[in-house]
Amino acid sequence: MVRLKVAADKCTGCRSCETACSLAHDGACLPDLGRIWIDFADHDTSFAPKICRQCRKPRCAAACPVGALEALPEGGVRLISEKCVGCGNCVSACPFRYLRLSHDGAPLICDLCYRRPEGPACARICQEDAITAIESPEPAERGKRIEAKGDGNQ
After folding, report:
1. What is the pTM of this model?
2. All domains of the chain, ordered by start, with CATH?
3. What SS3 string covers 101-138?
């Protein structure tokens, strides 16, 4: 299973990961549409990439009343946009407070660049190695940290 590993202490806040993600998913360089996002804390002096934790049993998918979120066996959750009604139940269900909605009400959720042989765009573009794609057998569980120390995802 591919997972994203974060080393927040390496993040410079350049937002390249957000831009690469929006380009891979939406065909446009719009960081606000990235499925990964940078949390600017302490008045823009510290940066923490926010990523989906790839839960074993994603509560976001379970909370969707129309089955618009599909947990992928290799990790990640895929949005079936034709089914999404923009209710926001998935956002409320995420125990890591990762999910957010786009301007049209669809969840901006990481699918680990589903079916792209080159892998996650955010990890490929990060020059500082603040985000890397790794092989990991274990998805996240509430209360367990598997990311790098100082990852900013708590």
Report:
1. 0.80
2. 2-135 (3.30.70.20)
3. ECCCCCECCCCCCCCCCCCCHHHHHCCCCCEEEEECCC
